Amino acid sequence: QVQLVESGGGLVQAGGSLRLSCAASGRTFSHYAMGWFRQVPGKEREVVTEIRWSDGSTYYTASVKGRFTISRDNAKNTVYLQMNSLKPEDTAVYYCAAGRDYGLGSALWDYWGQGTQVTVSS
Q1: Beta bridge partners of 97
Q2: Strand pairing of 116-121 and 10-13?
Q3: Nearest to residue 45, comparing CAs of 54, 35, 55?
Q4: Does the N-terminal or the C-terminal CB of the chain have fewer CB atoms within 10 Å?
């Protein structure tokens, strides 16, 4: 089992920045792919970004590329999401996930955090 706890969400003005953190406990954190997802009411949860454990390669959805950065610190069992140049359309609940690493876009997401709200005002 892996437990994930997100933090760092909040209210920010458009153009501002936030950094989300996801602290993991339980099984070996470093062997999991890690991802950030987001969801707004009435819409499906979408992948924002993911990072592989094997080589640190990353994927970003087109709408956040160049603005968001995912990173992980295996020694601290923590994954981060640095969000810059935030836009109102980034408003959502952000979830951290850990999964079996079968390649970018192919991870099987086994564990989820409880989510943290990010609200970007215009």
Answers
A1: 35, 112
A2: parallel
A3: 35
A4: N
Count of Cβ atoms closer than 10 Å to residue 105 Cβ: 8
Cβ atoms < 10 Å from Cβ of 64: 21
The predicted-structure confidence for 78-121, as pLDDT tens digits, reads as follows 999 999 999 999 999 999 999 998 888 889 999 999 999 999 99
Q: What is the pLDDT of residues 50-87, one digit of tens each?
A: 999 888 899 999 999 999 999 998 889 899 999 999 99
Assess contact for 38 and 46: CB atoms under 8 A: yes
By 3-state DSSP, what share of the chain in percent is helix, strand and coil, each rounded to 5?
5, 55, 40
Whole-number Å distance between alpha carbons of 88 and 73: 29
pLDDT over 80 at 32, yes or no:
yes
What's the one-letter identity of residue 26? G
* CB of 72 closer than 8 Å to CB of 50: no
Among 72, 79, 76, which Cα is nearest to 20's? 79
